[in-house]
From TrEMBL:
Pfam families: DUF3617 (PF12276)
Species of provenance: Hydrogenophaga pseudoflava (Pseudomonas carboxydoflava)
Signal sequence segment: 1-20
Signal is among the record's keywords: yes
UniProtKB keywords: Signal
Protein name: DUF3617 domain-containing protein
Length: 181
């Protein structure tokens, strides 16, 4: 079974890095569903098919391995990543940022409970914008549109997701260290 692509991981964590509004510290689950890319949809469906076809012991081992990294794949290819927000990060409105792919994220505007941001990654070259709508300090919904180039052809993808606070204790999930300035 192939692991989720670096692009998917980048997009999930780039979305996590932008939702700094007023956020409760602790363990968060960020779930995203990609769309607009038939090749990615096919790869996610194949991954789910392979996981379902595994013997129960092997499937349990694979799910445990993904879980140790705070990741799971749900129905319809929705990917959930758990992230840890430290009290210091929450106090500074700083959230985990992507350390792979040489990504930057910028907040464009904050109005009421809505935040708009944009991001750019160099590896793979990807840009996008997203809108985050907060429901207090323990939940948000997001919609993103991203552009990338794959095999020399431009692609546009969408991502819809949600984040929810799980607990004040991050357990085994370690905070992602911000990139060095």
């Amino acid at each position: 079974m192939r692991a989720p692509s670096r692009l998917l991981t980048c997009l999930l964590l780039c979305s996590a890095s932008a939702f700094a509004q007023t956020t409760a510290p602790g363990l968060w689950a960020i779930q995203n569903k990609m769309g607009g890319n038939p090749e990615l949809d096919k790869a996610m469906a194949e991954m789910q098919k392979q996981l379902a076809a595994m013997p129960p012991a092997q499937r349990k081992q694979m799910e445990a391995m993904m879980g140790q990294n705070g990741m799971s794949v749900g129905a319809g290819g929705a990917v959930t990543v758990k992230v840890c927000i430290t009290p210091e990060m929450a106090a500074r409105s700083e959230l985990p940022s992507q350390t792979e792919g040489d990504c930057t994220s910028t907040i464009i505007s904050r109005t009421g409970n809505t935040l708009k941001s944009k991001f750019a990654c160099k590896n793979p070259p990807t840009t996008g914008e997203g809108t985050y709508t907060f429901s207090g300090d323990k939940a948000f919904a997001t919609k993103m549109v991203m552009q990338t180039v794959r095999n020399g052809k431009p692609e546009t993808m969408t991502m819809e997701g949600q984040g929810k606070w799980l607990s004040a204790d991050c357990g085994a999930i370690k905070p992602i260290q911000p990139p060095k300035q």
